[in-house]
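Response to reviewer comment R2.3. The reviewers asked that we include at least one raw input/output pair. We reproduce the pair for Serine protease easter here without editing.
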Amino acid sequence: MEVLVSGKLVLLLIVAWLGASAVAEFQCGRLEERYLYTILERTEPSENPWIGILLAGRDKRYDNTACSVVIINELHVLTTATCVKRFKNRSGDTDAVAMLGVWDESSSPDDELVCNERDFCVPGPVLYNVIDIKVHPQSDRDTGDNDLAILRLEKPIKWTKWIQPICLQGSSEPETLTNRNLHYSGFNHFSTYKGKGLAMTVSTPKCKRLTSSSVFFPENQLCGYPVKRTKFYPGSALMDIDVQGDKPHSFYLVALLVRNVDAGGATTQVYQNVRNARSWIADNSK
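Raw output as returned:
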């Protein structure tokens, strides 16, 4: 339902989805096929609603960590272990905050509405305090491998059109991630708006050359060769599409961005593969 209020075009969400009943209302990894076939780097407000931003601070004084988070269920978000190194207290009061339902990075939770240049408005973002941080037990600071962390939220997420989880697994997945044209989404250093793009995954030998890792490259990481060189925040989601009945059905999470590498005239994205960590994620996000 669209309503004109004080000269602004406001999209009103009439139905309230709450608690456990809300989960049944939503399909994880929700996608709209019309958004897939575009070269735009800016998402629509309701596109990829599992993407948020990691903040640090308290009492309305927050620092943007320049890291994205990905919603995996009503109490947990996923990001990189590198992104949470600054948080000394890992349990109880972490000073970490997940800002969810955010489309424009410059918006504030105090904003009732966030509007673009076309006067299209959406609800402001919502803050969720993080009470526990679990880093992957095999996270290796020397090699960078297994760069994953699960963040538990203080209270269950209230699902809306703008805040929903991604699927963690597809119904049928390819054996290899090499030579796959995959979608990614998160926030970046080019625009305040939630962004997206396409990246072609490459072989490990090619990845070594692109990142100048001639001797060693982490076993559970992979490289993406993006169409555009825009540098996205760590924690951005690399996603594949689950196809059912010859139709794109949903996005599922493949990897999280851990760093960008400039080499010559190209930018390479280095991702942490989450497929081998799914059992750890499941066990620690119940």
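The domain at 181-276 is CATH 2.40.10.10 (Thrombin, subunit H). Residues 204-211 form the longest helix (8 residues). Further pairs are available on request from the corresponding author.
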